[in-house]
Amino acid sequence: MVIKFLGAAREVTGSKHLITTETGKRILLDCGMYQGKGLETDSMNRNLGFEPSEIDHIILTHAHIDHSGLIPYAYKLGFSGSVICTHATRDLCAIMLADAGHIQEHDTYTFNKKRARQGLEPIEPIYTKEEAVESMELFFSVPYKRKLHIDENIKVRFTNTGHMLGSGVANIEIKENGKITRIAYTGDIGRPVNRILRAPEDFPQTDILITESTYGDRLHEDKVNSEKQLLQVVNETCVDKGGKLIVPSFSVGRTQEIVYSLNNFYNDRMLPKVDIYVDSPLAINATNVFRMHPECFNKDILEVMETDPDPFGFNTLFYVLSAEDSKKLNHITKPCIIISASGMMEAGRVKHHLANSISNPRNTVLAVGYCAPATLGARILRGDRQVSIHGNLYEVNADVRRIDSYSGHGDYNEMLQFLGCQDASQITRSFIVHGEKETQERYKTRMAEAGFNSPEIPARGDEFEI
Which residues contact 200 (CB under 8 A, 6 or more apart)? Predict the structure, then answer.
């Protein structure tokens, strides 16, 4: 058996790891899109590193686009196998992949207008919304902990990671020459205390471990303190300064957590009287998917729902669907809160809100999740005084704040705590993926101190015989 690392290797996006068995079965762990690398991103996404028609199965840990976003592209190029995931992951992919296809079409249309002015041939989108919808026919979903017999030699089951709705460790058993090898691919690891989701759960003992490392060199603040910070930023911006609070947020997961916190403030009569807008059609659709899967919720939110049946809605909260209504938000002069995608500030409606608001010192930009190093979000967070948005330069005069603990990724203590269910002495190989190289080196040291024998950090294209 051979494992080849094709993405999220010494970087944080584009998750793709290919297992080839001795009988020639090809199983792809995730099929994620590269994000946040500027012009380089398109060429990296078009070069999958494998022949799609030769892939038998994709085992998908969760629906985030950096893990699922190239499934429609693989389908377009000939992949006709099955995509195996949890029920909630399938429901989220149904809206997220279609949205990604729509973005591909829109961005390509805009880019081709520039190419036409330069006398260049147009390019095709990586895939269309229609192709994304068609690719959903390949999805096959199973409940958590249900062991699925892919064939007589391969079994898989998912155990909850608490990272996002439906996320799970892919626990795989592969039988070769009468010997069973157990592989655990964590995907992304959530936090032991989540506002909405159940905590990560122990997963079965494995022989081969593939694990993420996004926050392998940092610690989060606790949940209570972060919610105090959120309320403080709301008051400072909207009450004290009379400005707008712009919250760039991932449509799935972070937006629902922020809305849930604000909902609780509203119920407790702590929220100032300001209008709050969720300006993201994807976030609106995702919130509806959340409502369909209370089996993923923790006890706290289920208790809240006994007296508040909709924890994602209250009187001063408005969901903005149309582009026309989104544009109207630019003309609001009174204090308000705008929550809009994307979380890394690289695409979507939030860029318009940033362009409209970032130069006004009364306003605040609040980051609530990870921003890859090359993204607009990272440039704003590191203190650049001038940034380019849609090709125009803007002075950064607004306050820039960050609350890391709304991130869905566990910090290094939380990840090691999660891995603590394993007997490290039984693990023959461990691989660290989904992290920046320097972060991975620090996390490798911590894993070794925790008893994991010589963790390895594969580069893109590296192959390992198991």
Answer: 160, 161, 162, 163, 189, 190, 191, 192, 410, 418
